[in-house]
Amino acid sequence: MSDGSAIEIQNGYGKAVQKQKKKIRVVGLVTIFVVSIMAAAFCDLEFDNKATSILVYLIYGVAVLIITTIINVVWAMGLLKKIESLNPLLEKDPDMYMAELTDMIGNPKSAILKQILHLNRGRAYVCKQKYQAALSEFENIGDKIVLDPRRKIMYRIMLALCYMNLDRKQEAMSIIEEQQGVLTELREKGDSLATSLLSVLDEEKWQEEDE
Known about the structure:
Blueprint lengths: L2 H44 L3 H35 L2 H6 L1 H12 L5 H17 L3 H9 L9 H17 L3 H10 L1 H9 L3 H19 L1
Helix pairs in contact: 1-2, 1-4, 4-5, 5-6, 5-7, 6-7, 7-8, 7-10, 9-10
């Protein structure tokens, strides 16, 4: 792939995501605006009682909150699907993967999107065997992890893999012992990260036995 086409793809992903985000939010704002006018008109026409009007406005406020939440959830789900669609690129071209991922997510305010950005950038560095850079990304995730269970397991495995390759064996072993059952199950299913980690562990055991 040429540099020109690579830049075109990268920009295309980012623009598509931002366009989708704006479209969803515009639709949401228009919906809220229309509902606001309808609610105000309804109260003026139907209710002389102040308490009843207040109740209607409270119900309207809850409806607006629900609509806003749905807008954000729909956008986030669409974004996560687009992030997953980049996975085939991860092992082929980690640098391009990171560029597209960063362009796609941008500078997120959401805690979970920030953690996904650092997790996936770290994953790309692991593919490049740049374990110190990967570890820096994982450390940026912080102590309060809000990732879903699947990504939490991925994070723990890659963190242990970094520790093993950076000669921080005690920290790696602590994670491996905690995740032993999961690691074995994942290796049996052909998971590359679990296989890599357990292979490094097996090599360490062989070296200790030879000594």
